[in-house]
Amino acid sequence: MSTKASSPRQIANSVEKLYPTALAGSWDNVGLILEPFAPRQPTKGKVLLCIDLTTRVTNAAIADQDVALVLAYHPIVFRGLKSVTLADVQQRSLIRLTQAGIGVHCPHTSVDAIRGGVNDWLVQACLGDKDENRMQDVDPANPAPQLPSDTSSSKLEGKVEIVERVSAKGIEGHEDAGYGRIFAVDRPLSLQTIILRIKRALGLGSVGLVSPRAFDESTCQDLTEEIHGVRHEAETIAIIAVCAGSGGSVLKSLISRPRRPTDAPADASLYRPDLVLTGELSHHEALFYAEQGVAAILCGHSNTERPFLAQMKQDLEQQMQKDGHDIECIICHEDRDPITTA
Known about the structure:
The structure is a single chain. The protein is 26% helix and 20% strand. It is built from 10 helices and 11 strands. It has helices at residues 8-18, 55-63, 89-100, 109-113, 118-127, 135-138, 191-202, 248-251, 283-291, 309-322; strands at residues 31-34, 45-50, 67-72, 103-106, 161-165, 178-190, 208-210, 235-246, 275-280, 295-298, 327-331. Strand 8, helix 8 (248-251) and strand 9 (275-280) form a beta-alpha-beta unit. It is elongated, with a radius of gyration of 21 Å.
């Protein structure tokens, strides 16, 4: 184990072994976003994990003298900057961090694309394998919602398919990468069951629901409807598609597929989904899915990503140890989704 403090660039190199920047979307801005001229030299370095690099996260990073790097899932810089001044609150955070000797790395869609990343985590949540409230690990101060227990789980029918593949040529171990996932379950589920599983896994008291029943009775006539009472008891959900964050554009291509006949086996490689799970949809995307007869569960953009920080912490610490870095990964409890329900 190295006794010399690891620099932000050395830490970032280890991060990119897990989340290769080459897998990110062409529009995305991933990798080492900020590299300080005079990095901190802590005895035992820390990487602070968050979804969004806000002022509160910046304060937490600076206050902990052992933090060498902030790993922010979302890039704080998307487009080229013509100036860096104190007038812009996000630029102010970057100035403060570089003065403190702290780097910033943003992996974003690289985490979405890899097998075992955030989208596969959401698949497991739908299956019931992540039924525990992972937000207790991410934000212990935020009390978990009181929800009915659910000890059931589902099995896959076939394999989990990639919705939008990316070119991973030459990236060893990531040949099967891409955005979004679609899969079938061995036995059809009720919407009520899936909603409960998602609430528990993501630590949410409520979710948004796009119900096609409100637009066309014939498209989902076997769904029991009591929208506000959250009664959706008919077991009609056999094929599910997931995409963390804003998944409307990624999952939209699936709607051109034929609808699964009621007597046909669930085949995620052939038929359109019965349900999509994502963070958010635009108004017109929600209308599109509803009128196409596809239900959608909306959890809030970063709510579909933040619980994965607990898994990211484990994976990164293993990679750091493997690469000889004496680094602890910690989850920032100041990181929040900006939208709450009232």
